[in-house]
Amino acid sequence: MSSVKEIKPAERTENITYAVRDILLVANEAAKTGKEMLFLNIGDPNLFDFAPPKHIVEHTYKAMLNNKNGYSPSSGIKEAVEAIQKEAERKGIDNVLDLFVTTGASEAIDICLTALVNQGENVLTPTPGYPLYTAIQSKLMSMENPYYLDESNNWQPDIEDIKSKINNKTRAIVLINPNNPTGSLYSLQILQQIIDLALEHNLVIFADEIYDKLLFDGKKHISIASLNKDVSVITFGGLSKNYFVPGFRIGWGVISGRRQNLSKYIEAINKILRSRLSANHPEQYSIRPALEGDQSHLTEAMAKLTVRRDITFNMLNAIPGISCVKPEGAFYAFPRLHMEHKDSEFVNGLIRETGVVVVPGSGFGQVPGTQHFRVVFLPNENILTKAYTNIASYYKKYMNSFAGTAVK
Predict the structure, then answer these.
(1) SS3 content of the chain, % helix, strand, coil (to 5)
(2) Kind of pairing, strands 356-357 and 336-337?
(3) Distance, CA of 47 to CA of 60 (rounded, Å)
(4) Are 171 and 113 within one domain?
C-alpha cells in the first residue's frame, strides 16, 4: 500500500478571505453558550423586515411554470438586455457598447477582472472596500494595489493617494459608489478627477453601483460613465440590493467608452460568458418588471433605513472613543475605534461576551494604524438599540481592562 500524501491546494487560494462570513465561526461558538445573538454582519435585507416587490417574484414564478428552465443566451434574454440598456440610458450612459446578465454582480466582476488582468499586474481597489475584489485578485495572482478612502472627507477617494499608486502594471481602478462598507456617496468633483486619471493612464474603471437606488436625505447618485463618453467603464448593477432579491443572483455589466479601445476586451469578456453558458434563466424575467415597474418599495425601504441610519450614527457617536461618519447610501456604517488594539481582537471579544456580531475593519482594509468595524443597520430599531448599548458597555469594559491605555 502506497503512503498517503496530502493533496495541496493551489497557491492562488492562500490569501483568499471573506471576513463577513468568516466571523460567523466566532459567532457560532458564542451562540452555543445560549447568548442572544444580534447579527449586524451580513447585508441581506431578507433576513429582516424587507421583501421584494411581489410583481418581481410573480414574473419569475410564471417563467418557471412556462418552462423557461433551460439555458438562456450567454449575455442574457432579449427583454432583460433591453431593460438594462434603458436603465443605463436613464442613468445618463448613452454610449453603451455591450452589456450582459450574470449570476449576481459578483460574477460580472469576476469575469471582467479575469478577462483583463494578467499575473503580476494590478488593479486599484478602494480601502476600505468590498473584499470580493481582493479575493478575485488573489485567484488571478495579480498584485494588490489598494488606495485609501479619506475618513476626514466623508470617505471620499483620496485622489493624491490614487495618483501615487498608479504604475506601469496598473490596468483598472475600482469604484464602489455608494460604498460598502462606509456608506459614502462620491462627489461630482471626485468622479471627474478619477476620469482624468483613467484617461491619462488608459485605465478601465470598474464602477460598482449595486446600491445606486438606496440613497439618504434626497441625495442623487451620479454614474461615472455618464460624465465622459471617452473613458472606458464597466458599470455593475443588479437586483440583489435595490430590489431585495440577493438569492436570485441576478446582476449585470454595462460596457461604455470608445469602441476602438475596448473591442478586443469586449470579445475576451464574451468568450468567458459563452464558456460558462448562462446566468439563471427564469430569474432574468424579473429584470424588466423590476427596472420598469412600480418603485414604491424603495420609498418604504428608505423611510425605515433612514430611521435606522440615524440611530446608528447618533448612538455610535455618543460612545466615548468611537466615531462614525454619517452614511449617505446603502445600509452600512464603518465606525472607528480610537484605540491602539487590533479591531479583530475587540470584535471577537464583543461577539463572545455580548452576542453582537459585527465585522472587523481589517476585513475590508483600512489606513494603517486605524481600527474600525462594520455594522449593517438593516435590523429593526429595537435590535439596533440593544446592539449599540451592548457595544458601548463592552467598549468601556474593554478599554478599562488595559491599565494605562489612553484613548487616542
Answers:
(1) 45, 15, 40
(2) unpaired
(3) 21
(4) yes
Contact 387, 46 (CB under 8 A): no
Residue recorded with cell 499586474: 121
Query: Number of folded domains in the chain?
Result: 2
Q: Could you tell me the CATH number of the domain that includes residue 177? A: 3.40.640.10
The per-residue pLDDT for range 200-233, each reduced to its tens digit, is 999 999 999 999 999 999 999 999 999 999 999 9
Q: Three-class SS of residue 371?
A: strand
Task: Identify the bridge partners of residue 252 per DSSP, sorted by sequence position.
Answer: 101, 237
pLDDT given at position 21: 65
User: Could you tell me what percent of the chain has a pLDDT over 90?
Assistant: 81
Q: The domain spanning residue 26 has which CATH number?
A: 3.90.1150.10
Q: Are 262 and 202 in contact (CB under 8 A)?
A: no
Q: What's the one-letter identity of residue 17?
A: T
Model pLDDT for residues 111-161, shown as the tens digit of each residue? 999 999 999 999 999 999 998 898 888 888 888 899 999 999 999 999 999
Last residue of a domain, one of 292, 321, 341: 292
Q: What's the grid cell of residue 33?
A: 453558550
Q: Which segments within 177-220 are labelled E, that is strand? A: 204-208
Does a structural domain hold residue 1?
no
CB atoms within 10 A of CB 154: 17
The closest of 260, 251, 187 to 229, measured between CA atoms, is: 260
Average pLDDT over residues 266-293: 95
Give the domain-ending residue among 254, 271, 292.
292
Residues 30 and 135 in one domain: no
97 and 146 part of one domain: yes
pLDDT mean across residues, the chain:
93
Segments forming the whole domain that contains residue 228:
54-292
Could you give the CA distance from residue 93 to residue 141 in angstroms, rounded to a whole number? Answer: 32
